[in-house]
Specification:
Blueprint: H1 31-41, E1 49-50, H2 60-75, E2 83-87, E3 99-104, H3 118-127, E4 133-138, H4 141-154, E5 160-164, H5 171-181, E6 186-188, H6 192-197
Parallel strand pairs: 1-2, 2-3, 3-4, 4-5, 5-6
Length: about 200
């Protein structure tokens, strides 16, 4: 991923998968090998999720598009036909098919708000897919207040996911802010893997 979330003045990088930032991270596989591995991991179809790093950055975007198309052709008459993509808000999503999106809007505390592709959020609103999500990772109250401005600006009202920065903001504090503001379509999400496995890789 080309973003470095959290490098805001003296505050630290918070990337959830910092170990994936290196070009040497991971194992190179073909689309067929990936689908074979997915099919072997579950007896029934499950949601396929592209995450990262950033799955839509550079040449990876075309690979993900082809893989999502393969999944759709195999599953179009069954559940989980559309691949879910977690993306950072910078990369253009408007020309992609066979996908649903969990797209970040990077708030000021990330130091990366200037990288946001604003057309993506107009696109999410206009296509009105009930499976799409917009995610806000909140570092402090200023971030939370900014998220409300973004929601108003783009007229977002469904599947708004709020998560607190691990070690920087307690989830219970964010929960109280959400309760007080009662934002339509908003819900709290915590990084469950962090609480169960800490900093372990690949869980």
């Amino acid at each position: 991923c080309g973003l470095r979330c959290g490098l805001d003045g003296a505050r630290k990088l918070w990337c959830d998968t910092g170990y994936a930032l290196s070009e040497k991270a991971g194992v190179e596989m073909s689309a067929e090998e990936i689908l074979s591995k997915v099919n072997a991991s579950s007896k029934s179809p499950t949601q396929i999720l592209f995450t990262g790093g950033e799955p839509l950055e550079g040449e990876k975007k075309f690979f993900c598009a082809e893989l999502a198309k393969m999944v759709y052709l195999k599953r179009h008459n069954s559940t989980f036909a559309f691949t879910r993509v977690e993306t950072n808000g910078k990369e253009n999503i408007q020309d992609l098919k066979h996908m649903v999106f969990s797209i970040d809007y990077k708030l000021p505390g990330s130091g990366m708000e200037f990288q946001m592709n604003r057309d993506n959020f107009h696109f999410i609103k206009e296509r009105n897919n009930p499976l799409d999500e917009v995610k806000f990772v909140v570092r402090d109250r200023a971030d939370f207040d900014r998220s409300r401005e973004v929601i108003t600006e783009f007229q977002l009202n469904q599947n708004l996911i709020f998560s607190s920065v691990y070690h920087d903001l307690k989830p219970v504090v964010l929960a109280e802010w959400l309760k007080a503001e009662n934002i339509p379509g908003a819900r709290l999400s915590i990084q469950l893997h962090k609480y169960l496995w800490g900093e372990a890789h690949g869980v």
